[in-house]
Amino acid sequence: MKRIDSSFRDPDGFMFESRGEMFRAVNPSYKPAYDHLLTSGLYQKLVDREMIIPFEEINQTDLGLSGFYKVLKPERIRFISYPYEWAFNMLKGAALLTLEIQLLALEHGMSLKDASAFNVQFQNGKPVFIDTLSFELYPTDRPWIAYRQFCQHFLAPLALMAYVDPGLNRMFIIHIDGIPLDLTTKMLPLRSRLRLGLYLHIFLHAKSQQKHKDSTIRFESMNKRFPMGSMIALLSGLKTTVANLHWNPGGTEWADYTGEGVHTQEYIEFKTKIILQLLDEVKPQTVWDLGANTGNFSRLAAQKGSHVISFDIDPACVKKNYIQVRKDRETNILPLLQDLLNTSPSLGWDGTERLSIFKRDKPDLIMALAIIHHLAISANIPLESIASQFAGLGNHLIIEFVPKEDEKVKHLLLNREDIFPDYHQSGFELAFSKYYTIEKIISSNCNLRVFYLMTKK
Amino acid sequence: MILLYLDPVTGSLLIQGIIAAVSGILLFFKQIKQIVKNFYNRFFAKKQEGDE
């Protein structure tokens, strides 16, 4: 049994890995809440509505364990992602899901004892709650324990993304327990105070935290009541506030936004044909599409049955990609924000609480389409270093080489010295041959780009 | 005392009463607005059906 490093805060249980599978141990302390979760029908309702990850109870002696109240085997999450990798609409979806679950829990005499964004994952194209142990018996007349955490994990980053910059959820990387409200108030523009919801849940809330920060009085002794009606009003207010936050890329006609730039239809058709053909050669189970844009080529792999992570650096592209996932109910594409030059690091306690992107999975296939020039020329990364990194990730590689004569590369070199004497087709092949066997080379018939299928040596 | 594993922060607990009160009042008016709207919509929809 190997305990999962991120699972140590909750005294009621923890996640562990055994024989290559994931399990959740439930401690005897959680018995009353666990029993109520099941007997009240709340768990079943959440499963029926696909709001929570389902689990089955396992006989703990089969795993050589004893002393736990229950051992559960939850449905495996295909890829763990974190809120600092989600687009605006993904974080918003996760926030609304958390509030819906809290409202449903209240109807069944329970309440969420935490509201961490890390308790939500994306599975089958939508957000789903993963922490079975987050439900406590509703403590009558008590305010919501997780209110502060909800505001820090959801409302603050969403407001910052909507009002300041769509990439500000990356502040989670510095503040692992969500963005502190006093910091949020310093960053939000004045006009955001005019929104009543933000004023109450962020500005006034931050003020109250500041005012009472040295308080030594126990809440119970204050004789304050917080009836169910107040709880419902609080949650409805939060829901409206979250629902009213929007972010769209500045000034662009949203429907036309592709981020792709202009390519001829002929080239796109050619590229599509080649990618489909190469995918058939590899038949990958899992694909990472690096620099996926809005996910057009990710979809080719997804339609062939692969599970695809569609990475891009542009929050607008990731948002648009996720809109399509929801619209078409696609179950095997996960769009994520990722800066390949500065990928998600390992974070938190002991440096293992949240894993770096490279430690979470190894895909069968990497797709790196029209991205090599951004890495090699814009960011000065040696071709061999790119090859080495890709080879460390997955066995197969579909890569598109964009030569110096290409308009995009010409543009990158417009105002800078050409310090890339090895950046040409044979230099590229030489660098990548150190790590890969080149299986196929296909030149585009409408421009100078070249497609490769490679297998790791 | 209820044992909590998460620090709810005193200020965050105390302010919920005030925020809930304001939200409650808003919710009340919103519901009234919705009821009135529904009433008119129903009335209006019926009229339209009659027209067809």
Give your account of this protein's structure.
The complex is a heterodimer of chains A (457) and B (52). Chain A folds into two domains: 1-247, Orthogonal Bundle (Transferase(Phosphotransferase), domain 1), CATH 1.10.510; 255-456, Rossmann fold (3-Layer(aba) Sandwich), CATH 3.40.50.150. In chain A, 37% of the residues lie in helices and 17% in strands. Chain A has helices at 31-39, 42-48, 88-107, 147-163, 181-187, 196-211, 228-243, 265-282, 296-303, 315-327, 357-360, 372-378, 383-393, 407-412, 425-433, and strands at residues 2-3, 13-18, 21-26, 55-58, 70-74, 110-112, 120-123, 126-129, 135-137, 286-290, 307-312, 333-337, 365-368, 396-401, 436-443, 450-456. In chain A, strand 2 (13-18) and strand 3 form a beta hairpin. Chain B contains one helix and no strands. Chain B has one helix spanning 10-51. The N and C termini of chain B lie far apart (65 Å). The mean pLDDT of chain B is 79.
**Rg value of chain A:** 24 Å
Strand share of the residues of chain A? 15-25%
C-alpha-based Rg of chain B, rounded? 21 Å
Strand segment tally of chain B:
0
Mean pLDDT across all amino acids of chain B:
79
Helical segment count of chain A: 15
Distance between the termini of chain B: 65 Å
Spell the H/E element sequence of chain B: H
Low-confidence runs of at least 5 consecutive residues of chain A: 251-255
Largest sheet of chain A: 7 strands, mixed
> Would you tell me the structural class of the helices and strands of chain B?
mainly alpha
- Main sheet properties of chain B: none
Brief account:
Chain A has 15 helices and 16 strands. Chain A has 457 residues and is an alpha/beta fold. The longest helix of chain A is centred in the N-terminal third of the chain and has 20 residues.
